[in-house]
């Protein structure tokens, strides 16, 4: 690119350096001083003069130190032609020359002084030998470590000095190159930023080598006719390699790096040196020419400042330094330092041009015309300085980045502003601000597409303030494509909100761009979701893109949303149920309960099986069938059989064993309905392929059965099937008592409901039989009041009877039959419970004779049987029977004639028996009284000859008792004052005990009252207690 097409800016502030006393003149140091060379380093300026003195200058341009480079006049070797400060050290290198003698190189340690003179210590002195040829030094270069020093002469020879010049441990020098052309510039290759940084550049043949640690492996040489390199190490030392067949003038070749700045300079362009010739600016590396920038015009000097190339162009009236333009004479004068007199032109329009270029960004940072010619260009203290021949010093201070951007903004040069900011390494936030300004500029010009590209680049992770503005600008149907592009980028950067997602999906829907919608959803899902999925799902459902909504919800794990879309939007109830069966237990339960009624309405049997499987703790999440699963169906049959066999041997989750045989009380239920047997549950678990998964059920706690009851509204058949299967689990002890009560109660109610809805008598009897089975089952946990209530509401009298019978309420059963007018039921209840509840006969007598119709239904034979039982068991007195029958005019005398006759005859016999017993008691009493009287008044004769205890012949001493029993005295256990016959003692003791008990009963009136209350024959009870002496008056002792 030609330099003339580069844009020019003013990024530098130029100020003249004035004296410290406030005068407008330059510092006295530069005015009239015969300055031959200068250099900067370590924040200090070093000036060499023609008198051989070195002046050390600070940032205020004051001389802080001066010293001669010779000790006495005899050692004076001329003016200082070259000077260099080793950056980061206190070492200074000076080269003094006088054409009468050989040049002298000295290394000074500025931090060390000589005791005698107080001057800096000279570390080493080297006399540079040019083969005894007295030619001026035209070029000079050193490496940072001073291990190599190259000196070029005007006769075309180059002397390379190698050694330890810092510690004066000796050095060697030799001429490594000779040419017929004067040497104009020397530069060592810069140090690599990393070890072996230049190894990739290779070389040709002998030039291939490893670079030195501090650089200097390659010496760049320029003459007035060539650019070449010399290898300074290895076998190829001194062998030239021509890089360019055109040379350059003195001062027109410099290393492409600013050692005084922390910035990298221009070495990053793959070049080591920069060369300024009349036609262009060239960069060179070890392998040849690099970048090139056309810039027509003579060049007098080049300098690298930070990332800029400083060019000094002589006045147009002065000849070029190039050989072809006839400037050879002037070049030689500059080489020997004789060209200053022609530097100041008398023509005010014939000026020197000073330019600062940014070759990376391709713009002119500063351009200025100087009346006086440029003598030296140096950089230090962060600024660039130009010393002119008239002794003036100009400071060039670079403006801040913000000021540069302001200049570019004012000219609407946003691309250069962006490049400049990127080169300066500003943060992403600052760059996005520039992008947005540029996008606003393009939007104002009507470049919608271009502005959108830069708005997209302005998007950042934390960018939120400008997004709404951009969206509002493009909310127009004509620019909806730009808006879609911007919204997509927001999602790519993960900064899109739910509103952005909604807007993007609305745009897709407005354009009906299904392809982009699919790509947005599926690509984003594959790379990680970059948008609010909930919003996207809602918008897809609203816009009618249900398949996409299902895909998003499934990817996000929103399983309930997937089921909802399949059921509510797509109507794929069967598929929704299948999807629910693939979910984990907790999630599957939520979806099942939410859409249970819909599932039961569309696929009742599959849903019922699912309910049974889940609530019995046997649920196993299915696996989604792969497309190639059908090819493995044949191979899976054997495995499925084995899996089913293994599962049948395992206990169900939460249960103590497998579901064994069916209870006898539920056999009818199993046969009458399509209840889910263990085989059916296995089929359901197997899925469509009929294979039972080998995976065991995931551990989960089945919910309480009553939570599913409301789902089976309007589905009584399926509800009964569900309850019966869950009841099997309840019998295994898995469910708690409360759950079992709920199941039994609800199942009983459903049986009654089904019985009432039955169309045939046989079917009704079957359902009622199941209901009876629940009541009769000993394990049934059902509240009696619930059974009675449900039985009453369903007009199920058998249920009421069974409950009352189970609770021992037999009298209530009979009474309920009588209240209902069920004579046959009353007769059956009497026959069934009469033996256990005799009072039922008393109630039956009243009921049977309550009306002619009841008596006719019962029959006279049954009435006679009731009367017979009442008579046999003494349940009623004859008088009570007569009173009961005479209450109404239903029963006739003829019906009870036999009963009355039998009763009278029985009473007569009983009276006769009582009379005989009275006579017998009287006779026996008289007899006992006579015996007692005889014993008290007459002697007793004992005729017993043997002892009743041992059966031996009686021998004295002998004991005789009045009861006519005789014993040996020795056979008696003890003989006291009141001996008692051992034979009669037991009966006597019984009599005494009875008598004592009678005496005690006489004082226990509460016992008498209780016996009297419980007795059916109260008169007989009174007679009994009277006979026992309870009623007798206590004996009176005088």
Can you put this structure into words, describing what you see?
The protein contains 34 helices and 31 strands. The chain has 1038 residues and is of the alpha+beta class. Among the domains are: 20-127, YVTN repeat-like/Quinoprotein amine dehydrogenase (Methylamine Dehydrogenase, Chain H); 132-192 and 216-250, Neuraminidase; 705-807; 810-891; 985-1033, no CATH class. The strands form eight sheets. The chain has a five-stranded mixed β-sheet with strand order 1-26-25-24-23, with no helix packed on it. A four-stranded antiparallel β-sheet has the order 2-29-28-27, with no helix packed on it. α22 (761-776) runs parallel beside α24 (797-806) and α29 (860-873) runs parallel beside α31 (893-937). It is elongated. It starts with 6 loop residues before the first strand and ends in an 11-residue tail after the last helix.
The main sheet orders its strands as: 1-26-25-24-23
CATH topological fold name of the domain at 20-127: Methylamine Dehydrogenase, Chain H
CATH class of the domain at 20-127: Mainly Beta
The CATH superfamily of the domain at 20-127 bears the name YVTN repeat-like/Quinoprotein amine dehydrogenase
Count of DSSP strands: 31
Which class best fits the helix and strand makeup?
Answer: alpha+beta
Number of helices: 34
**Largest sheet, if any?**
5 strands, mixed
Tell me what the CATH architecture of the domain at 20-127 is: 7 Propeller
Low-confidence stretches: 194-212, 325-329, 338-343, 628-694
Distance between the termini: 164 Å
The helix content is 40-55%
Q: Mean pLDDT score, rounded?
A: 77
Radius of gyration: 66 Å
**What gross morphology would you assign?**
elongated
Approximate strand percentage: 15-25%
């Amino acid at each position: 690119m030609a330099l003339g097409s580069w844009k020019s800016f003013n990024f530098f502030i130029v100020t003249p350096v004035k004296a410290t006393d406030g005068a407008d003149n330059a510092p006295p140091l530069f005015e009239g001083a015969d300055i031959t060379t200068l250099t900067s380093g370590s924040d200090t300026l070093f000036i060499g003069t023609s008198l051989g003195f070195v002046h050390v200058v600070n940032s205020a341009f004051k001389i802080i130190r001066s010293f001669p480079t010779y000790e006495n006049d005899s050692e004076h070797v001329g003016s200082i032609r070259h000077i260099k400060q080793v950056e980061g050290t206190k070492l200074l290198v000076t080269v003094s020359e006088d054409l009468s003698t050989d040049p002298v190189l000295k290394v000074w340690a500025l931090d060390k002084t000589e005791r005698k003179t107080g001057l800096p210590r000279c570390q080493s002195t080297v006399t540079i030998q040019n083969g005894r040829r007295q030619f001026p030094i035209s070029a000079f270069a050193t490496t940072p470590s001073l291990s190599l020093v190259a000196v070029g002469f005007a006769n075309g020879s180059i002397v390379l000095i190698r050694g330890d010049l810092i510690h004066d441990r000796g050095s060697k020098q030799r001429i490594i190159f000779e040419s017929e052309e004067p040497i104009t510039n020397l530069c060592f290759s810069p140090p690599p930023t990393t070890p072996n940084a230049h190894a990739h550049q290779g070389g040709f043949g002998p030039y291939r080598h490893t670079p030195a640690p501090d650089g200097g492996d390659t010496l760049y040489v320029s003459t007035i006719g060539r650019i070449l390199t010399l290898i300074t190490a290895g076998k190829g030392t001194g062998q030239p390699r021509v890089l360019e067949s055109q040379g350059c003038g003195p001062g027109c070749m410099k290393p492409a790096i600013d050692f005084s700045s922390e910035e990298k300079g221009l070495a990053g362009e793959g070049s080591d040196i920069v060369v300024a010739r009349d036609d262009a600016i060239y960069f060179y590396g070890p392998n040849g020419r690099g970048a090139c920038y056309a810039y027509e015009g003579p060049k007098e000097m080049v300098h690298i400042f930070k990332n800029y190339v400083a060019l000094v162009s002589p006045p147009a009236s002065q000849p070029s330094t190039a050989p072809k333009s006839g400037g050879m004479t002037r070049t030689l004068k500059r080489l020997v330092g004789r060209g200053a007199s022609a530097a100041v032109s008398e023509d005010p329009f014939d000026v020197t041009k000073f330019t600062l270029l940014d070759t990376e960004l391709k713009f002119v940072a500063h351009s200025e015309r100087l009346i006086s010619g440029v003598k030296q260009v140096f950089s230090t203290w962060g600024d660039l300085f130009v010393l002119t021949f008239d002794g003036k010093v100009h400071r060039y201070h670079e403006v801040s980045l913000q000021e540069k951007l302001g200049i570019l903004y004012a000219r609407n040069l946003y691309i250069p502003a962006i490049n400049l900011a990127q080169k300066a390494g500003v943060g992403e936030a600052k760059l996005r601000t520039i992008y947005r300004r540029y996008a606003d500029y393009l939007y104002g010009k009507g470049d919608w597409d271009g502005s959108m590209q830069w708005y997209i680049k302005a998007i950042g992770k934390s960018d939120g303030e400008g997004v709404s503005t951009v969206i509002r600008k493009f909310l127009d149907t004509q620019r909806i494509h730009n808006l879609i592009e911007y919204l997509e980028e927001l999602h790519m950067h993960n900064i899109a909100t739910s509103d952005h997602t909604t807007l993007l999906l609305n745009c897709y829907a407005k354009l009906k761009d299904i392809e982009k919608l699919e790509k947005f959803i599926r690509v984003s899902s594959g790379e990680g979701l970059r948008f609010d999925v909930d919003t996207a799902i809602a918008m897809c459902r609203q816009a009618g893109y249900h398949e996409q909504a299902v895909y998003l919800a499934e990817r996000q794990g929103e399983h309930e949303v997937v089921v909802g879309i399949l059921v509510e939007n797509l109507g794929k109830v069967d598929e929704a149920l299948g999807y629910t069966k693939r979910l984990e237990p907790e999630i599957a339960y939520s979806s099942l309960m939410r859409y249970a009624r819909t599932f039961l309405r569309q696929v009742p049997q599959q849903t019922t099986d699912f309910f049974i499987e889940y609530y019995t703790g046997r649920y196993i999440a299915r696996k989604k069938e792969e497309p190639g699963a059908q090819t493995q169906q044949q191979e899976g049959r054997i495995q499925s059989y084995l899996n089913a066999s293994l599962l049948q041997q395992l206990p169900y989750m939460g249960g103590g064993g497998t579901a064994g045989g069916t209870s006898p009380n539920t056999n009818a239920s199993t046969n009458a309905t399509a209840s889910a047997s263990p085989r059916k549950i296995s089929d359901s678990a197997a899925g469509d392929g009929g294979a039972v998964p080998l995976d065991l059920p995931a551990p989960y706690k089945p919910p309480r059965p009553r939570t599913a009851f409301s789902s089976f509204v309007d589905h009584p058949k399926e509800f009964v099937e569900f309850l019966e299967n869950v009841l099997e689990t309840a019998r295994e002890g898995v469910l708690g008592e409360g759950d079992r009560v709920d199941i039994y109660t609800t199942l009983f109610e459903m049986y009654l409901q089904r019985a009432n809805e039955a169309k045939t008598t046989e079917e009704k009897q079957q359902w009622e039989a199941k209901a009876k089975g629940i009541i009769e089952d000993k394990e049934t946990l059902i509240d009696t009041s619930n059974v009675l209530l449900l039985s009453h509401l369903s007009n199920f009298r058998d249920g009421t009877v069974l409950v009352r019978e189970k609770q021992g309420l037999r009298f209530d059963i009979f009474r309920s039959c009588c209240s209902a007018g069920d004579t046959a039921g009353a007769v059956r209840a009497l026959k069934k419970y009469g033996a256990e509840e005799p009072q039922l006969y008393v109630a039956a007598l009243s009921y049977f004779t309550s009306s002619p119709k009841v008596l006719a239904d019962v029959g006279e034979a049954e009435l006679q049987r009731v009367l017979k039982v009442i008579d046999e068991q003494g349940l009623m007195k004859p008088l009570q029977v007569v009173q009961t029958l005479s209450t109404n005019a239903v029963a006739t005398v003829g019906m009870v004639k036999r009963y009355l006759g039998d009763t009278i005859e029985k009473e007569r016999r009983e009276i006769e028996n009582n009379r005989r017993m009275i006579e017998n008691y009287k006779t026996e009493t008289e007899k006992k009284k006579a015996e007692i009287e005889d014993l008290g008044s007459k002697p007793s004769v004992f005729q017993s000859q043997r002892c009743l205890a041992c059966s031996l012949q009686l021998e004295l001493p002998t004991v005789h008792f009045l009861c006519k029993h005789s014993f040996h005295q020795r056979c008696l256990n003890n003989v006291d004052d009141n001996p008692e016959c051992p034979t009669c003692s037991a009966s006597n003791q019984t009599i005494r005990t009875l008598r004592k008990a009678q005496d005690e009963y006489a004082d226990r009136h509460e016992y008498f009252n209780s016996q009297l209350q419980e007795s059916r024959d109260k008169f007989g009870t009174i007679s009994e207690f009277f006979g026992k002496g309870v009623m007798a008056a206590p004996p009176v002792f005088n």
